[in-house]
Amino acid sequence: MTGQQAAPAIDVQGLRKCFPGNGHAVIDDLSFTLSAGDSLCLLGPSGCGKTTLLRLLMGLEAPTAGSIRIEPALAQRMSYVFQEPRLVPWRTCLENVLLPLELARQKSDTSSAYALELLRQLGLEDRLQHFPAELSGGMQMRVALARALVTQPGIILLDEPFAALDERTRFRMQDLLLELKSRLQLHYVFVTHSIAEAVYLGDHILLLDRSGRARDHRAIEFAGRDQLLKLTPGFNAVVQGYSQLFSEMESDTAAAPGTEVRP
Amino acid sequence: MKNTLRAWLLERYPAWIFLAVLLAAWEWVVAQQWVAPYLLPSPTQIAQTTVELWPEIYAATLSTANSIAWGLGWSAVTGVTLALLFFAIPIVRRAVLPFCIFFQTVPIISIAPLLVIWFGFGQPTVRASAFIVSLFPILANTLTGLQETDPHLKELFKLYRPSPWQLIFKLQIPSAIPYMLTGIKISAGLAVIGAIVGEFIAGGGLGSLIDAARTQQRVDLVFSGVVMSSVLALLLVFIIEVVSRLLLRGRPYLRKL
After folding, report:
1. Neighbours of A136 (CB within 10 A)
2. What is the ipTM of this complex?
3. Total structural domains in chain A?
4. Residue A240 is part of a domain; what is its CATH number?
5. Would you state the pLDDT for residue A122?
6. B193: distance to nearest CA of chain A, Å?
């Protein structure tokens, strides 16, 4: 112990979320913390509340009970990437990236230059004046990522952003995210269905069960991360461990007497 | 070679080919004297009359075009402004919109005499008639467009905490533009009808020319007037199409609206 422990970047305590007209909680009694500098992957079966948790963190939904505390410096600099690119169809690729700056009245020569630099890094420098309908799905997602990064966020929340991409593009985007993380000191909370993706991208993985409770929360440590890591026994052992947990959760759900499964 | 040319013509210009066949058949039927020329003059007779009376027809066409442009232009400005007002202030929408809908259901032909009483004979009544019939589709379509802004995009904008003005000018108006253009396209046809009906009652333009030709049993001149009013409507649709393509760049999936 070298001194006083730093306050967590994200501190969630006793979080519960119910939607009107839906009796059961989507998120129930969820508590976790995330230290500054760490990235978190949210993993769990469909309908376990991963997206809802992300929306609660972003402030797009209000909690029914419990608290979410985000370090004020980070809370001011949060960004969000939706499951789908959500590009504004009548704005060009560059105009879409500049949208957050325009709305915050922060558009300047410097910020425009930064937007151009981001698009260059994301391999879109020859698509600046293209409209979303003229871009492939992978390109649209990269534009959405550039839009989320242009405000230089401290933390970025990503909701299954690569789910609709083909495998090669998905791997490229994963590596790009890791590179941005180390280069821009970026932290992220990443929602995914894929165990391998969560193990590859997360410093921590929070596994949610179908009732929206935390089933498992642990740190994932590897010496370095590149696509070859996915071929190593250590990586596969972690993935298999999570597969086992998924199977246990499924058998728990099936065995629970009177378990009510609602849409 | 001949087959290829025929296939190409049919593929590229089916409407023009149909028109040519129709005109040829019409000409032939009249030439065979199966129909009296005073009831159905031949296309060449109509063309001849149009050329002979061109100064008169041209002046009438210009006058009608002026009334249509005025009526449609002002209904676009008023319709969009009212839609924005109704959208921004729901209580105004709930108070006024039912009367707009009621007003829309009243046939223009029954209001036209009233317009003559208020605005007198001539162009003011014609313009008012074109304006009244073309207002509602623009208002209703624009309002629908504003109300049906993509909720996903609304949520995206919410992330960046926009001001109400930013929300209207950067999201809601641009997303309503395709609806607005559809309203204007519908109104363009109605404005032509409104102007011609106005001219039947208040005089002037193609409406008056057609009415006068009817009383003189000049069916060829009636046809000339009808053709010119159709040309006006087509020209208007063409102009709106060009403007639509400019405004809808970036939305290739909407360009065919």
Report:
1. 12
2. 0.81
3. 1
4. 3.40.50.300
5. 82
6. 34
